Amino acid sequence: MADYRDLWKSLDMDLEKHDQLCAVLPEFYGDIYLSQENRPEGMNYYNFVVSEIHGLRIKELAEHKEKGGKVFGSFCVFVPDEIIFAADAIGVGLCGGSDFWIPDGEKVLPRNMCPLIKASVGAKLSGTCPYFQSADLLVGETTCDGKKKAWEILDEYTPIHVMDLPQMKREKDKIHWIDEIKIFKDKVEELTGNKITKEKLEEAIKLINKKRAVLQRLYNTRKAENLPISGKDALLITQIAFYDDPNRFIEKTTELCEELEARIEKGESVFKEGTKRILVTGTPMAIPNWKLHHLIETSGGAVVCEETCTGSRYFENLANEEAENIDEQIKGLANRYLGINCACFTPNEGRIDDIIRLYKEYKADGVIYYSLPFCHTYALEYKKVKEALDKEGIPVMMIESDYSLQDAGQIKTRLEAFFEML
Ligand code: BJ8
Question: Which of 24, 184, 214, 319 has its CA 20 to 30 A from that of 413?
Answer without folding.
Answer: 24
